[in-house]
Amino acid sequence: MWTAVTTSWECKWHRLLVCGCSQHSLLEMEVNPAQIDTQTEVGATYGGAMEKPTEAEQRHPHSTQDEQLLESPRGDEFTHTDTWRVFRIMGEFVEGFDELASLTRGISVFGSARTKPDDPYYKAAEQTAALLAREGFAVITGGGPGMMEAANKGAFEAGGLSIGCNIELPFEQGANRYLTRSMTFRYFFVRKMMFVKYSLGFIIFPGGFGTLDELFEALTLIQTRKIRNFPVVLFGTPYWNGLLNWIRDCAMKEGKISEQDLKLLHVTDSPAEVVQIVINSQSSLRGLDKSLADDYRELETR
Question: Which of 3, 113, 195, 255 could be a cystine partner for 146, CB 3.0 to 4.6 Å?
């Protein structure tokens, strides 16, 4: 078992496993594979860390990886749990980056998982995603039911890329059936990174805490200039009016945000206007044809 302070050869061996270096590289780095036990090798591979149940897993056998990560450590637990968890987190980042690396025209769509197919907003999300797909955008969602399913369905049936980034939850959330590419993440923060990194903008349909979380994180990243040219579109004026009034009448009135911050939000009830807002925000996209001309489409057809 590793201690909190790793040795140099352990770091080198992990780098070889993750990067896929050759056996010759081992010799050049003067690392003896015989020195490395099986547990180290397994722990360093993608998502393979901590295959042996940790103390947190033994205490709460049905808990998710996020729960275990956020649980306060007990005593010296850090030295033999969180250190191994780093590899699992790193592996999840690497896998996500590798899977989506060539995706250049993604749009993330958020909304409640509890939305039913007969809900007008379900139909609107479906129409919006279909229009985005016809304009050459890939639609990215959380991959689950409700509004996520609606957006994936619209993109899928329009012949576009329909990507689902699902999450391990205490209760089952299976992937919907309208996905051309599906991934499941253990950690919310890794999944959230993928939404932001591989999207040109966020479309926010009516939803609950999870939807609001994605909304305000995007606004914070824009406000602090971590991301640019990133439209955030709220769909459904009646649903969002109360929140917008509170932001304007309370937060802005008391000086907690500026009028310019409020302008970061677009509000509409039109699927066609959503697409136009996205296109107008990306000057580099103007004049491009409507085909998804990037390597990701080629990967999908292999």
Answer: 113
Query: Looking at residue 208, what DSSP letter applies?
Result: -
CB atoms within 10 A of CB 244: 14
All structural domains of the chain, each given as residue ranges with its CATH number in brackets, are: 8-87 (no CATH), 100-301 (3.40.50.450)
Measured CA to CA in angstroms, residue 63 lies from 82, 89, 168 at distances of 16, 17, 10
Residue in 219, 215, 221, 253 with CA at minimum distance from that of residue 236: 215
Residues sharing a CB contact under 8 Å with residue 85, sequence separation 6 or more, in sequence order: 49, 50, 65, 68, 69
Q: What is the 3-state secondary structure (H, E, C) of 97-108?
A: HHHHCCCCCEEE
The whole-angstrom separation of Cα 234 and Cα 93 is: 29
The highest-confidence range among 40-44, 52-56, 132-136, 172-176, by mean pLDDT, is: 132-136
Q: Answer yes or no: are the C-beta atoms of 103 and 198 closer than 8 Å.
A: yes
Predicted confidence (pLDDT) per residue in 135-174, tens digit: 999 999 999 999 999 999 999 999 999 999 999 887 757 8
pLDDT tens across 80-124, in order?
A: 677 788 888 999 999 999 999 989 899 999 999 999 999 999 999
Secondary structure of residue 293 in the 3-state scheme: coil
Which residues have CB under 8 Å from 250's CB, separation 6+?
Answer: 256
157 compared with 31, residue with greater pLDDT: 157
Residue 169 is classified by DSSP as -
